[in-house]
Amino acid sequence: METCEQGSTGEAQGAMEVNLDYLLQLKELDIPEEEAKKALIVTGNISAEEAAIFYFESLERLNEEMEDEQNSHKMVFVVNMELPMGVGKIAAQVGHAAVGLYQVLIKESKTREMAYKWDEYGAKKVVLQGSTTAHLLELQALAISLNLPNYLVRDAGRTQIAAGSYTVLSIMGEAESVNVVTGKLKLLN
């Protein structure tokens, strides 16, 4: 057995023991040395076969997670930052945008399926900054051109801002498509 030491002081800072024969077999399978060592340690140095199975299953899980992330759906909210809204008002308007968009989604079977996928993969939500009313309208037009369900909130004017003001745009779709519309916007702080 080989003992690999980490650190530059010569002291074993978390010494890892791996079977040299198994390590060589894994390297012949083009498994990177550090990954091979980890797989051997995790599987208890039982065999090169066990470590290889662990490594390739881990790789497969990672690929599936990346695929799920790419195909996952998200709901994005773009807040109109030119309006003088307090934190509570913004929160309420984002709530209106979420409920409004969800109601749009469940009306039709094709968008209802999108809502189910969104919910299944964690119901990802992101709140971003839009600069002006015109900016929100441009983003909405782009979302419509990409067939992305969206909902634009118009305020009733009972509290902080004028009636009819566009406060928040919500958009739903596959992350990649939504990012075409909102990918360059800053997160709301």
TrEMBL record:
The keyword Hydrolase applies. One of its GO terms (cellular component) is cytosol. Keywords: Hydrolase. Its EC number is 3.1.1.29. GO terms for molecular function: peptidyl-tRNA hydrolase activity. It catalyses: an N-acyl-L-alpha-aminoacyl-tRNA + H2O = an N-acyl-L-amino acid + a tRNA + H(+). It is an enzyme of class 3 (hydrolase). PANTHER family: AMINOACYL-TRNA HYDROLASE, PEPTIDYL-TRNA HYDROLASE 2. Belongs to the PTH2 family. This is peptidyl-tRNA hydrolase. It comes from Xenopus laevis (African clawed frog). The gene is LOC108714701.
